[in-house]
Design goal:
This protein has 482 residues and is an alpha/beta fold. It is built from 24 helices and 16 strands. The chain has 3 domains: 169 residues, 3-Layer(aba) Sandwich (Rossmann fold), CATH 3.40.50; 129 residues, Orthogonal Bundle (Helicase, Ruva Protein, domain 3), CATH 1.10.8.80; 97 residues, no CATH class. The strands form 6 sheets. A 5-stranded parallel beta sheet has the order 4-7-10-1-11.
Amino acid sequence: MKQSKKLGDLRSLGYSSKDVKTELRDNLIHSKKTGVNVFQALEGYDDTVIPELERAILARHNINLLGLRGQAKTTIARMLVKLLDEYIPVIEGSELNEDPFNPITQGSKQLLIDKGDETPIKWIDRNERYTEKLATPDVSVADLIGDLDPIKAANEKLSYNDERAIHYGLVPRANRGIFVINELPDLQPRIQVALFNILQEGDIQIRGFKVRLPLDVQFVFTANPEDYTNRGSIITPLKDRIQSQIMTHYPASIELAKQITRSEAKVSEEAGINIEVSELIRNLIEQVSFVARESEFVDQKSGVSARLGVSALECLVASAEQRMLKSVDTKTKARISDLLSIIPAITGKVELVYEGEQEGAVQVAHNLIRQAIRKEFLNHYPSPEKLTSKQNGSPYTPIVEWFSRNEFDISHWLSNDDYKKTLIKIKPISGFIETFNPDLPLEHRTLHSEFVLHALAEFSLISKKGFQGSFNFNDMLNSMLG
């Protein structure tokens, strides 16, 4: 529609305004009919969260997204902007984005009386209609709803009874838009009470004024279940006024987790071209998150954010790039040894229980990496626990016997050629991979050799010691005697 500058022009074009919930509903219906998926970027929610979200929008509900850390709750809220009209007209100069056909403040009502069809109109973009606030203990009613502004009253010589002396809070300023409160339980109960009227009656009351503003706001709240016991709660009357509560969740499979990490990780264009990260390495990164979500050392009520995988991939690529810059190579591939670089990403993303604190954050991170290697190894090769090296015919016997006669050292900082030449020395591992993974491309066999080496150490068939970027692998008995 032509962006009219005056109310009369807008009226002549037959423009009809909608409330924001109807606008979201109509645009969702249109997107479904035209085959446009506005929530396409949400991986793993196609059969769970997205259908519930669509039903809430169709029902014109305010929404509470309930889930653990890193489950894309804020991302979902921000995606709702795509369902708003691209532009809408508002009365120019209005603080509250008022509808030209339905003003709500005395100032705008008077402006329409004075100027009629000459009332100036401006158009605002959909992104200007999104407001987000993180709930913190210091948030006040004035922040959210508004209060008397004595400075404004003095400057404009207004009476304290004059509505124009009000400084409006974030909620009124989100009129005709989407208002998001993140971590709702952190909001003090007395502040949550201030939201009752707007959620139930659709208006607000401001202290000391006989004014009730009929606001038009789509509310979206986010909350972490942990907050209900550790830091606060959503008071029952407020929870009762939020019509739809939607539970989010972590990705159910490694493949989904990898898709999320690929889409969210920020890797420089240069690193993306020069550094190859194989599917095996990507699987190991995601296995760390999955293992952490089952670990006895990690607080499961707090959860393990999907951001762990994102940060871990970024750290791992940086480690490979650092090695490449130190060597003569212009390109490189991520290695198993690069997994040690993701420890800072792990320690910063997991909350530990008492036993984990006693163990130490770094030691817990090492344990999670070791468990991830064990778990991923079983997806490619036979379980060493079922086929011990003592048994006749065990595929691991030749490898273990090789280490009974040889000691093996490998440095994280080796160039590509030296890395390959070093690992090829362990002939039994090459034969083992050929037997149990014959379809593995040649360019991935060196990496799998290192993978088998580390996995056998985690299954205690050989010993492993790490020191300043180098690893020593040895026979278990020799290692104990030494």
